[in-house]
Amino acid sequence: MFSADYPPSPTPSEADMDAMTAHVENRPYHEAFMREAINMAELALASDETPVGCVFVHDGKVIAQGMNGTNVTMNETDLYVTVEPCIMCASVLRQFRIRAVYFGCLNDRFGGCGGPPYKIYGGIYRAEAIMLLRRFYVQENEKAPEPKQKKNRELKTDIMPLVNMKNPEG
């Protein structure tokens, strides 16, 4: 959180802005993606939102885009997900005001549904969700650093019994 003791950021002059971008190599390349961000901001404005838009670019391709959506909530929306949402995802779900989350298996290491303001219902297709994760964790990722490679891992197919799954309604 920012302290009120910090002075406001100075607004750069037009000359300062020109100086900031003068060194950008291949400016037309970057301007093309900025144009797409501007287009997203235009969509936000047309939706009565603050006109902020963005694009994520990887290897010269837009892989995701977004716009400000402060007035967006997902009240009365249910989410079905194979694994209990992680802490970061659970936080976003709270901000979106999700009504309920239905998930397959618990996320013992990174789960974030402890004490959520939305209802949770775990265990739906639990075995399948666990097996999906296990299949992922035994497959080889050629991009992984050497200590993380999985050449000698086995796929475990036994599913432990479900114990102590709590629902906020009791």
Automatic annotation (TrEMBL):
Q: Which GO terms describe its biological process?
A: tRNA wobble adenosine to inosine editing
Species the sequence originates in: Aureobasidium uvarum
Alphabetized UniProt keyword annotations: Hydrolase
> What GO CC annotations are associated with the protein?
cytoplasm; nucleus
Q: Which GO terms describe its molecular function?
A: metal ion binding; tRNA-specific adenosine-34 deaminase activity
Q: What is this protein called?
A: CMP/dCMP-type deaminase domain-containing protein
Residues that span the membrane, as ranges: none
List the residue ranges of the region (Disordered): 143-170
User: Known PANTHER family for this protein?
Assistant: CYTOSINE DEAMINASE FAMILY MEMBER, TRNA-SPECIFIC ADENOSINE DEAMINASE 2
Where the record annotates domain CMP/dCMP-type deaminase, the positions are 28-115
User: Biased-composition ranges for Basic and acidic residues?
Assistant: 143-157
